[in-house]
Write a structure and sequence with these properties.
It is a single chain. This protein is of the alpha+beta class and 177 residues long. It has a domain of 120 residues: Nuclear Transport Factor 2, Chain: A. It has four helices and six strands. The strands form two sheets. A four-stranded antiparallel sheet has the order 3-4-5-6, covered by helices on one side. It has a two-stranded antiparallel sheet with strand order 1-2. A hairpin with an 8-residue loop joins strand 3 and strand 4. The protein is globular, with a radius of gyration of 20 Å. It comes from Methylobacterium cerastii.
Length: 177
């Protein structure tokens, strides 16, 4: 049986855009009757499969992880409130780090912080990021396993993703696990 959950609000807007629904009704309702807007998505009844929701979240996490944040080029030490604001949306620049650097393990902590700060669908306390050391360092790739609870209605869903950091480009590739 496929688990279905209530569609996230952002996904309702995305679907409306994809279906070219501008929110205009087919005709004005008759006085004294309820108007029906054809083709509109009712958020209260709409649902999405667990698999599709995981795909949506993976796509959006990829966008988040591959956006270089403001702090990558600006010292925000005197502005801690900006560090956690939408102005600093994204991930630190990874291009200038080397794979042999002692701070490579800190990338997992940074990944967890970015997810907790900028992805509100993930339950903050449930986010776990661990480095997968089975990946050969000669592949110029670092792999992290991300596990968290996805806050959805009517139930929380467990999600797991692989985050592969390509060392030569700094790009992070998100894959469902």
């Amino acid at each position: 049986m496929t688990t279905r959950v209530r569609i996230p609000v952002a996904q309702a807007f995305r679907r409306a855009f994809e279906e070219r629904d501008r929110g205009m009704s087919a005709k004005a309702p008759d006085p004294g009757t309820e108007g029906v807007v054809s083709g509109r998505l009712s958020l209260g009844r709409a649902s999405i499969s667990e698999r599709d929701l995981h795909g949506v979240v993976a796509t959006e996490l990829s966008g988040l992880m591959n956006t270089v944040n403001f702090a990558a080029g600006t010292d925000l030490s005197e502005y801690p409130e900006v560090r956690a604001s939408i102005l600093n949306f994204g991930f630190p620049d990874m291009v200038h780090r080397t794979i042999g650097e002692g701070g490579v393990d800190d990338i997992g902590d940074e990944l967890a912080w970015v997810l907790a700060t900028f992805e509100p669908r993930l339950v903050r306390e449930s986010i776990r990021v661990t480095r997968d050391r089975r990946v050969d360092p000669d592949s110029l790739k670092l792999r992290f396993v991300v596990a968290a609870d996805l806050d959805s209605e009517p139930l929380k869903l467990q999600v797991q993703f692989l985050a592969d950091l390509e060392r030569d480009t700094g790009k992070i590739v998100i894959q469902r696990r």
